[in-house]
Design the sequence.
């Protein structure tokens, strides 16, 4: 069969499986998730063997240590994945929730009921854990899923997905509810992006290039974020100790992720009191600071930032720092250079905290807390399928609820329209 | 300036106006809406004169009576539009609503707050009332709007929009919050569909051809429905009198709209008792019935339906009728031929009512009520900006809430991630 034919068959089968899934009870879905978790642990040896094939390929192709690290399915990675499935099983089922119900003057009773979206397409890069995490969240929210992972992880991904499929089949759930596209050719992605009649939404996860390719070529709606250029603004009234702890945490704790700090904005009135010791602390943690001219006036040894620095998502131990005159200039800087992802203010001033929360147009806005909390688990959604920085359907970290929509159900007793 | 340049300028101005709009108080927005309503009534003569130009063109171009009727701004149409603005002013403001708020184990307080989407693009055909209705809903929900109406209504549309802009300017709201694209060239639409950095969502309203063109050519997310092939299933246990009243209402009361009945499904056990008198009543109302072979067995004088009839949105006094063996066959027929818009069951059987509500995958599902209630006003949303039959962001009639999204606000006191 042609690649296009294979992908079309997968999508049709997914659509048909999604009907069965949408009516599964929470009990049945949870039982499957628990069995999947057990089976992953039982099959650790098999998964490791398949993962070895990918690792051998990665070594041959000279992948970076970081990439190989992301690709590796160690025993502890497999345990973490298996535990993740148990956590998803323990979350409340969003499907069937009646979010509102009201009575009309003519006695019609109108309700809004949560239903699955249908078929979710996930396009992602090296990490094989995404295969299982995404499959678990889609199953719990009653959606069929079509997974398309990177070629470097294909053996690991197929091993995980076939194991999950076998468990589903034993439990009486159609195995087409979770399908991995076995073809790593780019043509498979191109075909997937055309199938608007079968796939309800595409969630790309990976680097900016992958995501831009998907957005530009997809007829299926896409939920995505390109990058996270996260800002912290230190207001004139900030508690300096708190500011330092939060900034270090946001920049250093895990610099390679989208909610890490990339640009620090500092109120001009505290520059000389705050910045020298702050930059010293950052440099102790091996952070390279790139400052605006006003930063260089007080800390002359740092690099000067170029205009492109303000747009950059470093994903590394680099931080751009800019002095601003006031809250307005901070907000304007974020509006111009930001990515609508996550921004925080450190302040003791009530009015400024409220203005920052209201006026900064990002999906997550924090007062006196680290940007690293911009994450589905940390915010209390229980899990995360991705992050959206566009406003349609979802804005910010997405959990199970964001994999559903609401339909109208109407209870009448003979009403007609006059 | 080139057409592309004009559209780009409009979009940029809209984006910048949307910032001001998102922070307007409900009081300020309502005051503007009330002033707009008054001004429409004050300027009835001016609006009529501009509308005359469009009507003259329509007559020259030989438009149908129905089209000319839709295009006409009579005094009573203008009164209805003006009243619509007052109704929108009276609706609750969705912006700023805290839909949920919770505390995390580390004492972070996380809230979800409704915010406007930003800039809405509306692409529509002849009716000039859409210009004002859509502008009012977008203003109330804090969104800037870019309107692109049909060439046949351009004078009426520009008259309405410039009048609304003048009111806004007097009230201190940027006039760029509501902009009509003055160019009726198709190139203006093409350019609009590319401006993903400035326009947050496009809502096309009109015929299926227009909507398909928009979906296929847009890089901006689109919320839409192609058509409404609405079904009513008369279950074996239905109250026949109720069924007849509801079916007549759904088919005849306003056949040219998307929530009108197009296909009737009848349980086989009631065919001979129910169908002959039902079809008689329909024919009394000048409805042409097209039946499946089993319909023709009991009412031989009706036309036979072809396969394409089951897909058809007639928007006219035509009804296709099919006999089905049971609820399952009814649901399967709807799944295969339906448009995910609106379906109803007439039944006295509890289990069948629940199964129909759960298993029919349409945006509005009713028991014992007319499909004509599938409308934002009738369902109690207070207003309607459009209907979505795809599940992302909104499913079914959309009111003010559907013109908003939620961002996360987080109140901390120094929390860092460990």
Sequence:
């Amino acid at each position: 069969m042609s690649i296009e034919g294979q992908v079309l068959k997968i999508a049709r089968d997914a659509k048909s499986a999604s009907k069965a899934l949408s009516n599964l009870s929470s009990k049945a879905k949870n039982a499957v998730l628990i069995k999947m978790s057990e089976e992953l642990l039982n099959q650790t040896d098999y998964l490791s063997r398949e993962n070895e094939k990918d690792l051998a390929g990665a070594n041959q192709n000279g992948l970076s240590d970081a990439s190989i690290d992301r690709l590796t399915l160690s025993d502890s990675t497999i345990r973490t994945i298996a535990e993740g499935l148990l956590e998803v099983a323990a979350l409340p089922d969003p499907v069937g929730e009646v979010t509102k119900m009201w009575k009309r003057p003519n006695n019609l009773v109108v309700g809004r009921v949560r239903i699955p979206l249908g078929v979710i397409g996930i396009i992602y890069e090296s990490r094989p854990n995404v295969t299982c995490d995404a499959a678990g969240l889609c199953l719990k929210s009653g959606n069929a899923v079509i997974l398309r992972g990177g070629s470097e992880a294909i053996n690991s991904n197929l091993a995980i997905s076939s194991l999950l499929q076998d468990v589903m089949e034993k439990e009486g759930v159609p195995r087409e509810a979770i399908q991995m596209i076995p073809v790593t050719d780019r043509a498979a992605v191109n075909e997937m992006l055309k199938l608007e009649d079968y796939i309800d939404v595409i969630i790309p996860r990976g680097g900016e290039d992958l995501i831009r390719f998907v957005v530009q070529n997809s007829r299926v709606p896409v939920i995505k974020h390109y990058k996270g250029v996260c800002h912290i603004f230190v207001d004139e009234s900030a508690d300096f100790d708190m500011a330092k702890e939060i900034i270090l945490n946001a920049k250093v704790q895990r610099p390679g992720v989208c909610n890490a700090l990339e640009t620090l904005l500092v109120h001009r009135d505290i520059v000389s009191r705050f910045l020298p010791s702050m930059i010293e602390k950052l440099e102790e943690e091996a952070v390279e600071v790139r400052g605006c001219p006003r930063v260089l006036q007080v800390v002359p040894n740092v690099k000067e930032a170029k205009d492109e620095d303000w747009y950059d998502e470093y994903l590394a131990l680099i931080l751009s720092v800019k002095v601003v005159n006031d809250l307005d200039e901070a907000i304007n800087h974020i509006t111009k250079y930001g990515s609508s992802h996550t921004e925080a203010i450190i302040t003791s001033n009530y009015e400024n905290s409220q203005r920052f929360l209201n006026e900064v147009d990002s999906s997550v806005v924090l007062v006196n807390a680290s940007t690293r909390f911009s994450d589905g688990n940390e915010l209390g959604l229980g899990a995360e399928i991705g992050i959206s920085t566009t406003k349609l359907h979802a804005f910010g970290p997405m959990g199970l609820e964001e994999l559903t929509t609401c339909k109208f159900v109407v209870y009448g007793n003979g009403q007609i329209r006059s």
Remarks:
- The CA atoms of residues 223 and 392 of chain B lie 8 Å apart.
- Chain B touches chain A through 67 residues (CB under 8 Å).
